[in-house]
Amino acid sequence: MKISARNVLKGKVKQVTPGAVNSEIIVEIPGGVEMVSIITKASAEKLGLKAGKEVYAIVKASSVMIGID
Amino acid sequence: MKISARNVLKGKVKQVTPGAVNSEIIVEIPGGVEMVSIITKASAEKLGLKAGKEVYAIVKASSVMIGID
Amino acid sequence: MKISARNVLKGKVKQVTPGAVNSEIIVEIPGGVEMVSIITKASAEKLGLKAGKEVYAIVKASSVMIGID
Amino acid sequence: MKISARNVLKGKVKQVTPGAVNSEIIVEIPGGVEMVSIITKASAEKLGLKAGKEVYAIVKASSVMIGID
Amino acid sequence: MKISARNVLKGKVKQVTPGAVNSEIIVEIPGGVEMVSIITKASAEKLGLKAGKEVYAIVKASSVMIGID
Amino acid sequence: MKISARNVLKGKVKQVTPGAVNSEIIVEIPGGVEMVSIITKASAEKLGLKAGKEVYAIVKASSVMIGID
């Protein structure tokens, strides 16, 4: 499936922290950057997420803000 | 100001495309990755966004999805 | 690609309304329901969206609210 | 109250899974489709959500993405 | 209709700026605070939004970030 | 850091409820209004959030809906 989301960053799962209904996923992307994602625990299990797995961090453009110093 | 958003990626504005109420901002981040952001035109002007400006692309963790091949 | 988003509804594009940076997409899903989506104009063009095309309306679970009468 | 959100889908609660601060709500909508929602536990309790209750799954248009095969 | 969104702030429309597909709505709430909303132009028209109209600015709790100085 | 988010409301933390991965933060803003935020537990701890602390509730304009009676 191809998706309209403009931000699709390839990386590798670094850590999965499961909660009761949500799980926190930390993804390492090239350039030494980390992305943190909160998805449902059911999704994390269905996708078989665990440290080392190759994944994409996906973000809709309307969810990206801009900051300046 | 420090913000709770877990994803704060340093980069440089590559392109600003203004619309009537929203503007599209393309940000280059290290590792050859681009982030695309939609913010209000008023915000883009207030922050003085233009090509070459150093900025941060900011995303709340709950807005990040995970995909696998 | 498989995605963590819990809501993936199959349907057919009914109408595409392009703006300057965003486009509005109306999708008909089974059961006589319509879903309305705002994505970037660039994404709508890249995916070749036009009336009649089979698509999925995709929503992250954390973006779904509940209402009662 | 009438709301600006363009997607208001009538359905019936199928399952409520409470966590510490959030609850997962599964809603069956006509056409054999399910919608999954994450809302605060406090909201789920305030609305009296439980299996069988008639509800609406509500989504802002800017939160809907489009995918294609 | 009652909605799960935890943030429902009563106010008055101050300004409506229509674009091609989205409109920007500025709402004055008590305490001298303004809220800015981007909704589809179709929703703004359907709700009859114009300066002076009493409205609610509604935000899902998962869309609220926290900042500190 | 200055941020593109159009809604930055000054207030004071009233209550912090930690979950496994997310925490619920209630913020009192002037005019007797409360804002409820869900952020990651890690962010709540990193920002040192506790009752009485001065904070900002921050919301991107595209996350604000409008309701009418």
Walk me through this protein's architecture.
The structure is a homohexamer. The first copy, chain A, is mainly β and about 70 residues long. Chain A has a single domain (about 5-60), classed as RNA polymerase II/Efflux pump adaptor protein, barrel-sandwich hybrid domain (OB fold (Dihydrolipoamide Acetyltransferase, E2P), Beta Barrel), CATH 2.40.50.100. Helices cover about 10% and strands about 60% of the residues of chain A. Chain A has one helix spanning about 40-45, and strands spanning about 1-5, 5-20, 20-30, 35-40, 55-60, 65-69. Chain A has a four-stranded antiparallel sheet. In chain A, a hairpin with a 3-residue loop joins strand 2 (about 5-20) and strand 3. The mean pLDDT of chain A is about 95. Strand 6 of chain A pairs antiparallel with strand 5 of chain B, so a sheet runs across the interface.
CATH homologous superfamily classification of chain A: RNA polymerase II/Efflux pump adaptor protein, barrel-sandwich hybrid domain
Most extensive interface, chain pair and sizes:
A-B, 41 and 41 residues
Strand order of the largest sheet of chain A: 4-3-2-5
Can you summarize the main beta sheet of chain A? Answer: 4 strands, antiparallel
The CATH architecture designation of chain A is Beta Barrel
Count of discrete alpha- or pi-helical segments spanning 4 or more residues of chain A:
1
Q: Just give the CATH class of chain A.
A: Mainly Beta
Percentage beta strand of chain A: over 45%
Measured on Cα atoms, how large is the radius of gyration of chain A?
13 Å
CATH topology of chain A, which one? Answer: OB fold (Dihydrolipoamide Acetyltransferase, E2P)
- Compressed to H and E, one letter per element, the order of chain A equals EEEEHEE
Tell me the helix content of chain A: under 10%
Which structural class best describes the helix and strand composition of chain A?
mainly beta
Overall number of structural domains of chain A = 1
Give the beta-strand count of chain A: 6
Which segments of chain A are poorly predicted (pLDDT under 50) over 5 or more consecutive residues? none
Distance between the termini of chain A: 38 Å
Q: What multimeric state do the chains show?
A: homohexamer
